[in-house]
Amino acid sequence: MANSYTQSRIRKISRRFGLTPLSFDSVASLYRKNAVVRIQTNSGTYAVKPFFRSLSLRSGTIDQMKTTAGYIQLLMNSGFRYMPEWLTSNSGKLWTLDQGRPFYVTTWIKGRELENQEDFKKLGRALASLHITSSLFRPMKSPFYEHIELWKSHDRLFRRQMTKAYQTDLRTRTWYKKFGESCNRFSDRSWTELKKTEIIDLLKREMIHPSLIHNDITSYNVIISDDGQLFIIDWDRMKAGSIYVDISNALMNTTQFNPDLIYSLLQGYEELHPLDRTERKLIASLYRLPREAWHATRFSNRPRSRNERNMLDIMEHTWFLRLKAMDLLDEWTNQ
User: What transmembrane ranges does the database entry give (predicted)?
Assistant: First the structure.
């Protein structure tokens, strides 16, 4: 979509939401050059966002957009305040279709990234609010998204690739030899814990009455606005799934293994949604899984993007910080 955002196209989409753009510019994300279009209007600044389907789901793009819009409407009706305002199109929907691609429009949030312990407490409260709010209704318009079973398949692929390390590039082969067995030990410990009766029962209860999860909490998707309000953006991957997956992902993707920030996020979460020992153990087990290694080596025989090539290097540079973070979560579990 590098050259698809012409002035006439953006104007046409914007007008369906009652907006007249004075100017616009494309803003890149970590993975896409034209992730969102920022438009300036007389009434303020807005984000025009193309919706991209999740490849891990079998449903099509439009069906996924409909489901996501339904979830967003439920959150809006429930007073959830940690996301930008979604605008309604002239058709009465929260999205529109243009050239076969769904688009939605939200207010543009100007602000900064997460910086301090108070910011991470706010993020913890925001996650807890999302999980509590959505647990009050039945969001099951689509199947429960089973992350854990998917991760098990990634782990099996990782182990098979380790046995064929000679077929990979030198960097990946060297990394396997240095860290591969440790990754497998972490996984083995987590899989053993996840087989315990109390955790199996917890996951079964959650599948019966799940909550909505953002499913992509990263530092890039959390903004502290100029007035200090925390906003979570980019809700395309929103699912009915496990809150414990959502928490462990947020810890991994935002705290940079900083113990103060880890504790602050968890403290903020438990202010609204206290966690018992079994829930804490589940979060610690999911956090321990070496998912980044699985992802980075998943297609080791194919050309990888710069982000994937750098992922193993980042893991190597932060290895001891990760070990300390795992120990910290074990301590938190036993408090």
Answer: none
> What are the pLDDT digits (tens) for 116-148?
999 999 999 999 999 999 888 765 555 667 889
Alpha helices in the chain (DSSP H): 7-15, 61-77, 117-135, 147-163, 170-175, 181-194, 197-208, 243-254, 259-272, 277-288, 291-296, 306-317, 319-334
Q: What residue type is assigned to position 62 of the chain? A: I
Q: What is the pLDDT averaged over residues 201-214?
A: 91
- CA-based nearest residue to 217, from 152, 325, 127: 127
Residues 6+ apart with CB under 8 A from 6: none
Which helix (H) or strand (E) covers residue 91, if one does? none
Here the contacts of 9-16 (C-beta below 8 Å, separation 24 or greater) are 9/98, 9/99, 10/37, 10/39, 10/48, 12/98, 13/48, 13/96, 13/98, 13/103, 13/105, 14/39, 14/41, 14/46, 14/48, 14/105, 16/89, 16/90, 16/91, 16/96
Question: Which residue in 199, 79, 63 sits closest to 130, CA to CA?
Answer: 79
DSSP state of 90: T
Superfamily for the 7-108 domain = Phosphorylase Kinase; domain 1 (3.30.200.20)
Distance CA 183, CA 205 (A): 29
Q: Note the pLDDT tens digit of each residue in 242-257.
A: 999 999 999 999 999 9
In the block, residue with structure tokens 């991470």: 120
Could you give the CA distance from residue 155 to residue 153 in angstroms, rounded to a whole number?
Answer: 5
> Per CATH, is 117-334 categorized as 3.90.1200.10?
yes
Q: 173 vs 25, 179, 214, 314, CA distance in Å?
A: 42, 10, 34, 16
In our burial notation (b when 16+ CB lie closer than 10 A, e otherwise), range 240-276 reads: bbbbbbbbbbbbbbbbebbbebbbbbbebbeeebebe
Q: Where in the chain do CATH 3.30.200.20 domains reside?
A: 7-108
